[in-house]
């Protein structure tokens, strides 16, 4: 049925990384003189989100250790907006799935959806923050800084977003996304974030950048009052390290899996070239005609946000969707588009047939196909014959092994050995 061959390629990405996380965090907080800022016996809320950050459990434990060395009393606050089904239990479970349990980090997890009202911004946007965090003497916000999946700006996804949407819980996340429709995402995040810095007890931020392979590239402790300016600088680093597909346009992208730990939108929109929301312009590159999604990750717990970014999904995807969790997330993000259900195909063969049949007048032997594990794993991928010449022109791409014919198992699914 499909005569194209697959070629395994590797692309060279930024591989700079921090080897000793604990020592690095200790050194960073020494620079910020944490022990002179946080006093003995004071309660410190450590805000942790729902992203699949590499070494996040070790990072959190290291921050807890530094706070305890100062004689203070740290506790973990899940800071993930509406994720986990917008329930306290669901959000605590997400943290535990990342290895962040009370036993492992040696600090209690205080999970609640209650918020405190912090007034309004100059544009009249209501601001709220996790009630338990607000009642603590200090808040330390931990998050990865990276390009946002919904917009471009001087600040995107990072500490400011964590304060606004993560610490805002379901209510704050809904407010922020609704006002983003009116004011745009960057203005809304910036205005609310600055208001929180001015009116809440944000003492430190811990900004993380990952390299092209997902390892920790940069890790900075930042004073709360400096978060806005410092985050802009760190975002510049992140934009240079984040992985991208090495092709500007092609016919079909096959994605093995999507999930919340991979991207806030399940699949990174900046990777696939589709934003699909009502308050930002669409991306121009890469231009991908059809996208096939094969599965959801276990860690996403059925949250299929981003499924609407695909054109075709398999029955395997559909049967694992938790619609309630997905809809809560997408409605809170004012992005119902991300929950739209594409055409459901019984297996990979039928999905690929449908994709090829809707690509326009393409030659099956020269069709341009890219197959990836997910949008955060882009050091290795498979490409079809139609992209080989383009790949050979890229000095950062290396071909691995011999080309293989696309094969399917008895159920009509692609052979799974490729990414195992």
UniProtKB/TrEMBL annotation:
Residues annotated as domain LarA-like N-terminal? 12-180
Any one Pfam family here would be Lar_N
Organism's domain of life? Bacteria
A GO MF term: lactate racemase activity
Name recorded for this polypeptide: LarA-like N-terminal domain-containing protein
Q: Which organism is it from?
A: Desulfosarcina widdelii
